Sequence to fold (491 residues):
Amino acid sequence: MDLQGFLKALARRWPTVVVCLVLAVGAALAVTSLSTPVFEARTQLFVATRTGDDTVDLNQGQTFSQARVQSYAEIVRTRQVTAPVVKQLRLRTTPEELASRITAVVPLKTVLIDITVRDTAPQRAARIANAVAKRFSSVIEQLETPKSSVRSPRSEKGAKGDGAAPVSPVSLGVTQEAIAPTGPATPRPLLNLAAGVLGGLLLAAGLVALRETLDTTFKSSEAVGEFISLPGLGTIPYDRNAPRQPLVSADGHSTRAEAFRKLRTNLQFSQVDDPPRIIVVTSSVPGEGKTNTAINLALSLAEGGVSTCLVDGDLRRPCVAPTFGLVQDAGLTTVLIGQARLEDVMQEVAGGLSVLASGAVPPNPAELLGSARMEEVLRELADMYQVVVVDTAPLLPVADTVGLASLAQGALLVVRAAKTSRDQVRTAAEALERVGVRVLGTVFSMAPVSKGGRYGGYGAYGQHGELPAPRMSALLEGRGASALTNPTDGK
Fold:
């Protein structure tokens, strides 16, 4: 997945991003509110050497201090320092616990030692820091006092005044006493909030990437074409009013109506040399919009002046007749069993479209649809109409469509956006190829509508590229069925 695709995935799954941000920011705020404030008090010591006034002695003393000051910093948290401080200040803690709250840092190339003490009370943090600095200075000076210079009591009695008391070569002075801090060092609300936002974004990105990896559905018509190497003939946008108003002819200038006109045009131009007369419209599984696609494609062809017949070939769940409000009991099955002729059961709807309903639901749909009589019926319809559009059952649940598709001259495979999986589409395409039917292309249904997907003020824009119905009809009469594939004359 490239960066652009990942950003589109984030935009598409924006609820996941929002939920992750809310959870992460809420956790950060909760941590901030539940955390006990901790204050930091800092004091600074200067390590000096006792030398003479000679410049060489001064330089040597400076070098000596820098060489040892790092070792001094490690002594700050030893028990020699912390135990007397705990006793002196009567702290309710142990020397080891106090040591964990003390930090000593030596700035680079200096003889300074910064001692920081953390505590839940600001005044107590300052008192502890100053007490630690004082005790630390005393410990260092004791450690640095030369023991070899100390005389025994007997020698001191025998030589009064002959030996001086040993003196430490270093001394530690306080350059900055600790004062009570005005604000806590932790928690930091802004830092926690920023960490929450960043954590939420990272969590959202990870979840979106995982869902995109596990999601095997299609998000665009181009993705379907790349997957099964079939042309995408049309993209039908999602319309929440489609269940109540399935026929696009009722709103001729909607985005959905324009999509079906584009599907009609692409279908006509895609098969210029060998235009199919009998087209089955099918899908992998139920609920992908195949019946809606078949109905509105047939209506669009009829409105464009093409003599069209719509056949309801889904004998298990017929939906064509109820959509138009037609009689369903007499239709295809009535003709197949010889109880009526096509002319007797053919019904007309507005727009010049002829509809052959399914008829009574039979107990053996697969046998009827794959029979020789079905092939004869389709040939008769092809002789009567320029295009025969057959709505069929889904390919994967039942075997009805496989036998029927082998009798057709072309098939359209409907794929629902973000619903149909790759495996389902692959299996459906392979099933059509096995029976030798020519798959004309795919129709990407119920696709999300982009913000710029509506025509807005260009309500009649789609009509500029369409032949007027009377003119197209006359053109077809003069040129025959081949005019289906070349409607460009007279633009």
